[in-house]
Amino acid sequence: MAEHVVRVSQPTREVVNADYSFEIFSDGEKLGTLNISKGTIDWWPRKAQSGVELRWEDFAKLLDACFVDTSAMVRAARDIAQ
Fold first, then answer.
1. Cβ–Cβ under 8 Å, residues 67 and 73
2. In the chain, what are the domain boundaries?
3. Apex CA 25: angle with CA 82 and CA 39, to 5°?
4. How many CB atoms are closer than 10 A to CB 80?
5. From CA 40, how far away is CA 68, in angstroms rounded?
6. What's the count of helices (H) and strands (E) in the chain, helices before strands?
7. Cβ distance 41 to 22 under 8 Å?
8. What is the DSSP string of 44-75?
9. In the 8-state DSSP scheme, what is residue 40?
10. pTM of structure
11. pLDDT in tens, the chain (82 residues)
């Protein structure tokens, strides 16, 4: 099973426009960086020159489109974990 590492970089104090940044690793290899801010969520794949930026409303729509109901999401997460 893969070993996952998530590194978090966060502001030392509350700043309205400062992002929270998560570096995501699997078996020592960087998968990408997830930036979370007040207005958007951004995913930067490890070798990409640009990331994908979604407003929170669009991110919610994307998840809703993937998982019509929460029970389906829970089942999918359990299936993936096995």
1. yes
2. 4-81
3. 100
4. 7
5. 22
6. 2, 5
7. no
8. EETT-SS-EEEEHHHHHHHHHHH-SSHHHHHH
9. E
10. 0.66
11. 788 888 877 666 654 667 788 899 999 999 999 998 888 899 999 999 999 999 989 988 888 877 666 676 667 767 776 6
